[in-house]
Amino acid sequence: xxxxxxxxxxxELNKKAELGGGPERIEKQHAAGKKSARERILQLLDxxxxxxxxxxxxHRSYDFxxxxxxxLGDGLISGYGKVKGRLVYVFxxxxxxxxxxxxxxxxxKIVKIQKLALQMGAPxxxxxxxxxxxxxEGVESLAGYADIFYNNVISSGxxxxxxxxLGPCAGGAVYSPALTDFIFMVNEKSHMFVTGPExxxxxxxxxxxKEELGGAFTHNSISGVAHFxxxxxDQTIMMVRELLSFLPSNNLEDPPIKTTIDPSDRVEESLQxxxxxxxxxPYDMHDIIQKVIDNSHFLExxxxxxxxxxxxxxxxxxxxxxxxxxxxxxxxxVLDINSSVKAARFVRFCDAFNIPLVxxxxxxxxxxxxxxxxxxxxxHGAKLLYAFAEATVPKVTLITRKAYGGAYDxxxxxxxxxxxxxxxxxxxxAVMGPEGAIxxxxxxxxxxxxxxxxxxxxxxxxxNPYKAAxxxxxxxxxxxxxxxxxxxDALDMTHNKxxxxxxxxxxxxxx
Length: 511
Ligand code: HXC
Hints:
By secondary structure, the chain is of the alpha/beta class. It has three domains: 3-244, Alpha-Beta Complex (2-enoyl-CoA Hydratase, Chain A, domain 1); 269-427 and 464-493, 2-enoyl-CoA Hydratase, Chain A, domain 1 (Alpha-Beta Complex), CATH 3.90.226.10; 433-463, no CATH class. It is built from 19 helices and 17 strands. The strands form three sheets. Strands 10, 11, 12, 13, 14, 15, 16 and 17 form an eight-stranded mixed β-sheet that branches. A hairpin with a 2-residue loop joins strand 11 (309-316) and strand 12. Helix 12 runs parallel beside helix 14 and helix 16 crosses helix 17 (448-462). Bound molecules: hexanoyl-coenzyme A. Residues 98-99, 101, 131-135, 142, 145, 168, 171-173 line the site of hexanoyl-coenzyme A (HXC).
């Protein structure tokens, strides 16, 4: 072989590998409203930055005639590139090759970049579209999955791990995404379930479609398994890029700063009357968040799940923060099982990756009822308490209205380690709401008028921020119009915070 022939051979191999399962199958993928694995990677990464690894790997299976059927790359494309100029590792399952199924060989490719991502300290994004374990390989494929799971766990809290589900993801295969930090799904195109509709029908006689069982709507609004959903692949992949822009590359870095022209001392007059005078009237906490963050730019996480709590990423003076906020417009902002678990996981993510926490509080307490008690609100509520208490990142808290009972303690109070605690003059910080308190203190039968007078009396005495401020539990009672500047100054003051918990193997969060 002369020199030219050697180059030609490489050209041919590259071209072959890049065709995956071939033009027909790529066409089928497009007809189904899906992109090819390679197109997805190119869309995720900055133009011209993708470097592929293991392009020529093939499977090593000799059963079922598989030795006659090898495809370069073996149904998985992996490598590294840049997102907004920063290093990111990526793999994409190629559905055009054996249904994107996981073989021993392509599992090894995923493991290789997982290890690289961990050692180099950069995020890893998995683009999932697979029929699951390569049926022809049996237990070797299961071993491959387990190796991936193991690396997911070891990388957890060290580098951000993101999963986009862009097609089927079923059986034990769902557990790699579940071990990562964020799951993205595409409306009507992606599905996740441990056992599919057919098995369910046989075992429990339930009839359910795969969309109902494990579609984007189900996992974003009912199960809470997923964190984001896009209307199509393009939007979903753009959202992955946006999420990455808020995150540091690893747990030793600070999150990236984005220059902003939004003035730090911006006064927002409209906040002065945003909290209604009537304490039982709802308002949308999003309005406060939008008005105080940089350019109203809020990336909400799990926006459709447990809507009584809001979590997401924003920036103050260019620096990313994690926002946790009760939502009085939904179930009065009460804490229940789902909202506690949702917020606890988010708080722990932010703490692991040095993202300061800004908490907006308007919470009437924990949701009463047998379904909550039987469901374990005690242990689930404890998760949020645990997460806030163990978080060592800067923590700034603002009480806008209600902060009652145990929920006051839980919502990043001074007592569990918040650095700066603000309250609006409209705040009511007390052991419980005036109505409940009067019912317990005065069990006698009062007339409605007498009861109303006592409720009013209690409200005036206790349902305000002044008692808490006199004890130093609230550092400052602020005018709502000044919220942005106050939060930015507090974040600035806490920027160099040095705090660590006692050394331990790990804590024992109530799971
Ligand atoms: C090998 C597979 C495959 C698999 C699909 N293919 N899944 N090959 N192993 N797991 C192949 C098909 O044979 C077909 O090849 C091509 O991929 C496209 O599949 P289609 O069935 O034509 O596509 P579609 O109609 O879109 O259906 C997609 C699908 C279906 C819903 C994913 O293929 C399917 O149900 N596959 C099997 C899923 C499954 O049971 N997997 C194993 C689960 S157990 P040709 O050559 O005909 O085009 C598991 C355990 C994991 O995953 C445990 C981890 C701990």
